[in-house]
Amino acid sequence: MNASNSPAESLRSIALVAHDQKKDALVKWAHSHRSVLAEFDLYGTGTTGGRIAREVGLDITCLKSGPLGGDAQIGAMIAEGRLDALLFFIDPLSALPHDVDVKSLLRIATLYDTVLAINEATASRIFAQLHNET
Q1: Is 45 annotated as belonging to a binding site?
Q2: Angle, vertex CA 120, rays to CA 23 and CA 85, nearest 5
Q3: Domains of the chain: which residue ranges?
Q4: In CATH, what is the architecture of 11-133?
Q5: C-beta of residue 29 within 8 angstroms of C-beta of residue 15
Q6: Is 23 flagged in the annotation as binding?
Q7: Which residues participate in catalysis according to the annotation?
Q8: 33 a known binding residue?
Q9: Computed over its alpha carbons, how large is the radius of gyration of the chain?
Q10: Which of 69, 113, 114, 120 is deepest in the core (most CB within 10 A)?
Q11: Predicted model pTM
Q12: Which sign does the torsion angle of CA 52, 26, 39, 76 carry?
């Protein structure tokens, strides 16, 4: 994020991802923040992105499902400077067969100092700040 710009000015593209047990929560959260999310270029992994498009009515580019390469696609977008924020509602209580992919995505987001929310409380706080700055 460029220090001379406010967060609202510097965020242009956001990825929305959720583990299976958190998809309902992310869809509900996206619905309640629809007006702010509509201002951004949105990307999502397969099922999550599809649900947000259908149930919330947002224009979102759907990538592959997380276990089929969607997490890697989002990581590549971060590394290439094409993604400014990642909202990834993580289920800390479920074992995941693709856990190594999730860890890689979080590592990339951390390495590139990407705005990152891994739960609803953090995502809401980020968007409250964005709403106040616009």
Answers
A1: yes
A2: 90
A3: 11-133
A4: 3-Layer(aba) Sandwich (3.40)
A5: no
A6: yes
A7: 71
A8: no
A9: 14
A10: 114
A11: 0.88
A12: negative
